[in-house]
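Proteins fold reproducibly. Take a tokenised chain:

. . .
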Amino acid sequence: MRKVAWSIIGTLICLGVMAALSPRFAQAEGTNASSSIDYVYIDSSNLSLGEEQRVAIGFSSAPESSPRSIVLTDGDGSNYEMSLTSNVGFDYLFSSDSLPAQQYTIAGILCESGETLSLGEEVDAVFSVGAHDDSSVTAFDIDDGDGFETAFVGDDQSTASLVDFSGLEAAAGAGTLRFTIALDAGHGGWDSGAIGNGLQEKTLTLKIAQYCREELEQYEGVKVVMLRDSDASLTSNNSTREELQRRCDVAHENHANFYMSFHINSGGGAGAEVWIPTESTWYQTFHEEGASVGNKVLDRITALGLSNRGLKEGHYEVDGNKLYYPDGSEADSLAVIRYCREYGIPAVLVEHGFIDNPADAAKLSDGSFLRQLGAADAQAIADRFGLSKVKKPAPVIADTDNGSVTLQWEETPGAAQYAVAIRNEDGSFKTYTYDCADTSYTVTGLTNGKTYQFLVQAKVDSKWTPYSELDLVECELVPQPRFTAEPAGDGEVQLNWGAIDGADAYAVAERLADG
């Protein structure tokens, strides 16, 4: 099995033994076995309800289509998905903390192409939720059978697998999937939304949202979550409040960085408007962020011929009753903005014209106009958040040492060289090199205990790749002492390590057999 290449930062050491391989795994219908899967690692074989499960899957070479989620089958035959958290190279980390109490089998890996990859008949990848608290791991070394590195041997001679998730976890914020966008096509299923001039709001919003996704998926490092992708609702009880809450729940479960809700207006009027978060102090920056996105949306879609009704905002008040955020500030009037704000997700709602206005409806009846609207929404999001269609380096923190940080990234196609810089406190950058020919670089001369932000750019076709806040990787430099252990006499062990600059104390511990 390939050893995970990055160095240990806050290493996760899991006690357990490699599970015996079993032929009981049945290949899911419509799946293809992948010969390139290298290993499967299940963090816990039994979890308490609400506890997070993590599954790491490694490939020996790049999969033909990027993994999107793991498909789970429970004992009743129902299917669930465990979302991709991050990836580094060919190693992928999936996680979930919201699985119901059941026993689950990993039925396959769902890829962006729609294909589902089987783990193979030799892998019996099973775990339970809500059974009992036993965190022993399950690990399968698939491609070469050379076993996992033994990291610890207890008094009972049971082995422990050393799986370092640090690089994958760091990549959740700085790796291939940097930015997750939730797209909410308003209404759907039992809720038609507004009706006028032979049009239904739910049909139009779905088409615009799908065109928006089509454009967004051309940008590097973007994951799009469609809150509905057909004429269906997420709930079936005809409750608008529960439906909107569930959509925001799904955005939260997928760690969305931004939420856009698509609507068509009615009730007399013409043109486009964007609802944004108010200036309430709960996540106060969301007001400015929403205004920035909203203005960019209006600039683009009004250029297509819709009149500009401007930005809208408001606080909730019905019959004199108000709602408040946890800090006591007044809550937003629109449910999706309010629910998302409670989760810490900035959200806007875009009204793409009036369905009962003949001039607006004539435009909305044109499929090419709907495509232009979706692309305009996507481009406004990309402008605001600095998204790029050019592949860029996505560095991770590979190692920390006394006064130094080592960055590592995947090769950028066509890159002749890389530049590595650190962001200064005033927002400017100090560049360490413009001529790095490798895919790693160690920055020295740093101060332990401080937090740093780093940027890596690639030079492709004589141009440096663009960057935004999303391309910065952050590291609080608290290096782990590197020590050696030697026998020092009867019942004694001598530990030695180099001094850590700025350290005023060290802790020394022994791990006991019970963990």
In short: Helices lie at 166-174, 201-216, 240-253, 285-302, 335-343, 358-364, 367-385. The chain has three domains: 13-173, 179-385, 396-476. The first strand starts at residue 13 and ends at 15.
